[in-house]
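User: I'm writing a short report section on ligand binding and want a predicted complex to refer to. Could you take this sequence and S-adenosylmethionine and write out the structure as tokens? A short remark afterwards would be nice.
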Amino acid sequence: MEAALYDPEWGFYARGGRAGRRGDFITSAEVGPLFGAVVARALDRWWQESGSPRPFVVVEAGAGVGTLARSVLAAAPACSAALRYVLVERSAALRAEHERGLPSVLPVHAFAASNEPEDDDEVVSPVPDGPFTVSLEALPPPGSAHVVLANELLDNLPTRLLERTAQGWAEVFVGEHLEQVLLPTMVEPTIDVAPGARVAWQEAAAQWLRAALETGRRVVVLDYMTTTADMGMRPWREWLRTYRGHERGADVLTDLGSQDITCEVALDQLAAVLEPMRVSDQRSFLIEHGIDELVAEGRAVWERGAATGDLAAMRGRSRVREAEALTDLDGLGAFTVAEWVR
Ligand SMILES: C[S@@+](CC[C@H](N)C(=O)[O-])C[C@H]1O[C@@H](n2cnc3c(N)ncnc32)[C@H](O)[C@@H]1O
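Assistant: Sure. The structure tokens for the complex follow:
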């Protein structure tokens, strides 16, 4: 999974793989600007709850080409002037898109201290009005952010794969000829499943969460989640999937680098790092942060401008459709939103 997705030359993301209508899979951010508009409202609430700090540093991890960042900024949240929005993206090919339409700044400004003078004699240069964005390859230093947000990142992190055998647990490795090889393992998931059952052991996701909790005070993860026990009861190819051109792809060990590989995220394995403060589904999260109000505004704009069919009216109408897709409990609306606050 590591090589197939992230090899700098042959990996899926180096060879043009991406989210989006013209890409390989659709994410909430790529459905349209409404998701970002709701995230902008959530950011405002978290900003106000933490005393309206300035700067307000938000890290979006696994930012892809920067679509969510563009929608958040376009929504002009109240925290805009304070906002330092850090896009963290591992793929250089996708990072190269971050400058398109985003107000960039050198990283040093993103982490500039607050302009509240600590001591009366000290002259502190004012923090310039944002919003600014910064593009990084990896998470910024510990303690540098207020919020760390990740949409559909953890399902894309390489996972280990375990199989229950008659003798106990074994780990599935990939052999020289791309065959599956079972080897003994020290990892012992505490679930009771029949021999032949497999589970993902998502060490990289747990490590990412540990790092994110060091980076930011609030960590919010949106993804398709399940539990280790649930994985053990289902066919493994159902929760470890491939995608290409919006279709389910081939077996994970074929067409390496030309299809996305994604694994449902075991929430219990994340909770073992730290119990989340809140867990909800995406539909409830979006409603809590005002999606219905944004849709009502859109509908009103559409009704006023329907006769002329102007651009604002069309955008208003598309909000209704976007909301349906984002809150659909048979689709994106059923995704899990897990929040940790330190
Ligand atoms: C499924 S895509 C989601 C993109 C975007 N968040 C969205 O919702 O459209 C996952 C992205 O995470 C990136 N990624 C994977 N591992 C990463 C890491 N350790 N740090 C930052 N980005 C990473 C991938 O390159 C890819 O662009």
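A remark for your report: Residues 296 and 342 are 35 Å apart (CA to CA). The pocket of S-adenosylmethionine is lined by residues 13, 19, 27, 29-30, 61-64, 67, 88-91, 94, 151-153, 156-157 (CB under 6 Å).
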